[in-house]
Amino acid sequence: MKILRDYQPEILGVIVALAALNIWYLSSVAIEESVLPKSYDYLIRALTVAVGGFIGAFSAFWLKSYEEGKKNRQKQKSALNSALFVLIRQINAIQCIKRDLDKYETPFHRGLSLPAMKSPDYSSVKQDIDSLQFLIDNDNAQILMQLTIEQERFEQAINSINIRNEFYVNEVQPALSFHALNGRPLLLAEFEDKLGERLFQGAINGAAVMYELVYASDASLHEKYTELRELAKKLFPGEKFVAWIKM
Predict the structure, then answer these.
(1) Which of 136, 27, 34, 32 has the alpha carbon at shortest distance from 79?
(2) 181: nearest Cα among 170, 166, 196
(3) What angle do helix axes 197-235 and 40-101 make, rounded to 10 degrees?
(4) Quick one: which of 23, 25, 42, 170 has the most CB atoms within 10 Å?
């Protein structure tokens, strides 16, 4: 059935052409058989030419509109697939980061024992919001806004890692080495006394913010992926869209 829908304009054009030929042929036969007066010959021929011209022009316009609509739908489908693929890449990125963060459970270990993580460059993992503007016309502006927020949340999570890494490498780690605190089983108060309030609290709070943003992004990315894929299947029933497989 999908193949028939794809070739519907061509099939319609053939039917219209055959119908016009039959009208012209039958009118000629009718005149030759003296069923109609000879004077009707010119009228019938003129009418056939006019109707044929109108049908041809209308068919060409309809065909052009159909092809443009088909291209637009394909473009929209591709935009949805691209958006889903970006979400999948973001999910995989956050999950790789989260696996490293899961090893450190307490605020102390997160702030002072978690080593700096060198994250890949995720600047290209970004939603093309402009290509999804058609969702507004389909009364789905809300999910477009949510995708924008999701992109910002992902970028904030990555930025929080970079900020924490810079602070840890440039200030916290040198202070730990200077006071010979690496790996020593001391009380929190002793760590704070040696490092000072700014470094100690900065390390704890910076890690806490990083954890919060990464875990929030992990949860919301899954929700947004599921919601967008369901919408894509609804707008384009029977079409294929990329699917996320847990690594």
Answers:
(1) 136
(2) 196
(3) 150
(4) 23
**Token pair in block for residue 219:** 């949860």
Return the minimum-mean-pLDDT range out of 66-80, 129-143, 182-196: 182-196
Tokens of 193: 């006394």
- Report the distance separating Cα 205 and Cα 202, nearest Å: 5
Where b means 16+ CB within 10 Å and e means fewer, 103-113 reads ebeeeeebbbe
Contact 228, 143 (CB under 8 A): yes
Residue 207's contacts (CB-CB under 8 Å, 6 or more residues apart) are 107, 110, 111, 114, 164
d(CA 131, CA 78): 9
Per the listing, tokens 């999701």 go with 150
Which structure tokens are listed for 30? 């009718």
Task: Output the six-digit token pair for 53.
Answer: 């011209």
pLDDT score recorded for residue 48? 63
- Output the CA torsion 126→246→234→84 (10° steps): 10
Chain Cα centroid distance, residue 19:
46
CB within 8 Å of 200: residues ≥ 6 apart: 111, 191, 192
Q: Is the dihedral of CA 106, 112, 118, 123 positive or negative?
A: positive
Q: Give residue 96's identity as a one-letter amino acid code.
A: C
Token pair 């700096």: residue: 116
Q: Give the C-alpha separation, 41 to 28, whole Å.
A: 8
